[in-house]
Structure formats: structure tokens, C-alpha cells
């Protein structure tokens, strides 16, 4: 029940848990902006979500692709009369690529936001 109260407060006010890395160092951590990006995504603001943390939209797109592949494999399984689901060849290699691209997005996002912060431009203003 406590989790539901916290989630409701978060959706209404946008006040979540503060980032301790940012609090102690003054710099953004690799995940800073992720919670605000999810909040904006839940409200339907794709551009705002991308501004706060592009990784959130990347994960949503990767999950949509994975769900499509899984559905195709299940359809193929039922059409061929097989009991087990077999993924398409080369999926492990694709997964490694997706993880590498995701890590690249997080690292570039982290560097860009901290460079702008050092220049006096805050790219993560509070969501109103």
C-alpha cells in the first residue's frame, strides 16, 4: 500500500527520490533524468521524455521489437505444430548489439548533460 501512495504522489507532483550522486557531487549520474523521463512518457510527452533521458525511449522501442519477434516465433511454432519456442538464428548477437547501443546512449547522455552543466546550462529542470 505504501508503494501505491508513493507512486500516486510521484505521478501527481513529480517529486521522487533525490539522486544521491547529484546531491553529493553536483554532477548528474548516468541515470539522472530517468524517473522524470518515465513520468513524461506516461503522460504522452515523447519529446520531453527524450530530453530527460533517451534511454527510456530506447528501452521501450527495444521491448516492442522483442515482443514482435517473440510473437512471430510463437506464431511460427503454432503453425509448424512445435511445442517449444525457438528464437530466430542470431538473436544472441542482436541482443549484445542492443545492449552495446543502450550503454552507448547512457554514456553519451551522461557526458553531454554534465558538459552542459559545467557550462551553466541545466538540461534537467524540474518537471512541473
From TrEMBL:
Q: Which residues cross the membrane?
A: 55-77, 98-121
Stored Pfam families: DUF2752 (PF10825)
Could you tell me the keywords of this UniProt record?
Membrane, Transmembrane, Transmembrane helix
| InterPro entries noted in UniProt | DUF2752
Specify the protein name.
Answer: DUF2752 domain-containing protein
Organism listed in the record:
Candidatus Caccovicinus merdipullorum
Q: What is the lineage of its organism?
A: Bacteria, Bacillati, Bacillota, Clostridia, Eubacteriales
Amino acid at each position: 500500500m505504501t508503494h501505491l501512495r508513493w507512486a500516486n504522489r510521484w505521478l501527481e507532483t513529480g517529486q521522487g527520490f533525490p539522486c544521491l550522486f547529484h546531491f553529493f557531487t553536483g554532477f548528474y549520474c548516468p541515470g539522472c533524468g530517468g524517473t522524470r523521463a518515465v513520468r513524461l512518457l506516461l503522460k504522452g510527452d515523447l519529446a520531453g521524455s527524450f530530453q530527460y533521458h533517451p534511454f527510456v525511449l530506447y528501452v521501450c522501442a527495444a521491448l516492442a521489437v522483442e515482443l514482435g519477434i517473440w510473437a512471430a516465433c510463437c506464431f511460427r511454432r503454432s503453425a509448424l505444430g512445435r511445442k517449444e519456442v525457438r528464437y530466430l538464428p542470431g538473436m544472441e548477437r542482436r541482443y549484445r548489439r542492443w545492449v552495446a547501443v543502450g550503454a552507448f546512449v547512457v554514456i553519451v547522455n551522461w557526458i553531454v548533460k554534465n558538459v552542459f552543466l559545467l557550462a551553466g546550462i541545466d538540461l534537467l529542470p524540474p518537471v512541473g
